[in-house]
């Protein structure tokens, strides 16, 4: 406290403060000690009083014991009085129930009449009176002599009709409960009466069971457990209602399952709405009637779905069942309906079908679908083949291109199956798409084989079928339609994250389709060149030199065919035009190299060369016309004919070898125009030179 000199002035103040604190502490200590001393004094006083009380009680007990020993003989002499009291109690009960005992037959008749009239509450009141009289007499008899079965049987027999009335009343109650969903809308008071009767019986059962714990006596027919039986009846009613919705069979109606499931959906939704809005008002809250009914319906539906799943279902029926179970049941059309909210929480409901059963159904569906798709594709191809031999042209699309119905049929079938699968789950939709693409791959291989056979059969007899060209064009166009449809199908039904894995089959199918189209185009060109064969053989002959119109006929024939080929879709028509151009030029060059003519003079060579140039221009004009719109250079092939003509037109033999070598170096693949390939690339130029010179009777090179 004292740290600075100026604080010395407060020493006296500090002393007084500390003195007050010390006095306060001493006062508290004295008060505490005094309080403890007072408590000890009080405790000692109470112990002294308790000791005196114990001595008094001990003396009183000794007096009571003495008096009791002296009264034993007196108590034994009162046994007759005790028996008289018991007998008096029984007689009093008999007198009290005497009126009811004598009126039992009348009450039974009245109760029976009330039950038949539907006055259930009044009937139950009288039944309770009868049971009360019976149970009271039997209880008194049990108290007096529990081993006397003869008297108990006598009482039970006299009230024997009571049990029959109870059973009859119960039947009426169960009938009302079975129609409860109808009754609650027409006459809710009747349903309330039934619930009140059940509640009365439940209270009596509880009272009887409580008395049983004390006395061991239980009246006949108790406990009735009518509340438990009520829920059993409701559960049986729900099960019967679900099972009774199947009005048709597969034999009578192919859509039997769809109809059956739709009726179930409507009935269950209507029943639950009625239960939520009306039935809950007729039952006590602790019955939880809506919750119990919801569980009953859910269990009954689960059982019914299991039964349906165990049947030998067809593919479309499996789809209908799974769509209903996995989607419809938990949708707004049923359990998520706004009228059932918020009491129904779909998240708490167990699945109607286990994952194992769903998996088995999906496996069965995929297996059946695979067989069906194979059969459908085979049938579609057979139908398309029948069209190929018709005498009428195939149909054209909106752009005028020939086509058959095969792509539309195939992809319509795929679309239908994918739409159905999408209703069940995304995973199944992807599986079905993969299946469709796999089967499409196999189908296209068969399609390729059938198109090849179609071409070979026609080449054996070119008069049959009559519309071979048109249907071959349709087959080629179908390839492009298939390509576009496959891309469209994948874009529509395939998610981006799985597209990479599924798209692996695309190159394979594109390759097969291109091969089919290529074979078809080749077959059509073969048809063209079979008609041109006679006129191609006239090229570079004496007849040709003297004024044959072979090239005119070739141009007219090619143009006529390509008027039909205009029905071919652009990608394939473009390739076909280029191939036709190349083949015509090749045949022309082959005619040059086959030494069909020997020019006897320079004038003849000049005349022949000029004719070749004119015909090259004629062919150039034709193929320019045919290739219009493709945006490609088509002059290169005809330039080869002009270049060969320039060689032929030479008058100086010393330049011939140089010009031929230049020609071969400019067109290194010109040797492919010969009937047989030359033996060696190294000798190609020399052999071509010799062949050309020999054809022109060039003595200088010979």
From TrEMBL:
Please tell me where this protein is predominantly located.
other
Say yes or no: keyword Cytoplasm present.
yes
InterPro entries to which the protein is assigned, alphabetical = EXOC3/Sec6, EXOC3/Sec6_C
- Entry annotated with the keyword Ion transport: no
Q: One Gene Ontology cellular component annotation?
A: perinuclear region of cytoplasm
Q: Output the PANTHER family linked to this UniProt entry.
A: EXOCYST COMPLEX COMPONENT 3, EXOCYST COMPLEX COMPONENT SEC6-RELATED
Q: What does this protein do?
A: Component of the exocyst complex involved in the docking of exocytic vesicles with fusion sites on the plasma membrane.
Tell me the protein family, please: Belongs to the SEC6 family.
Record protein name field: Exocyst complex component 3
Q: Which organism is it from?
A: Macaca mulatta
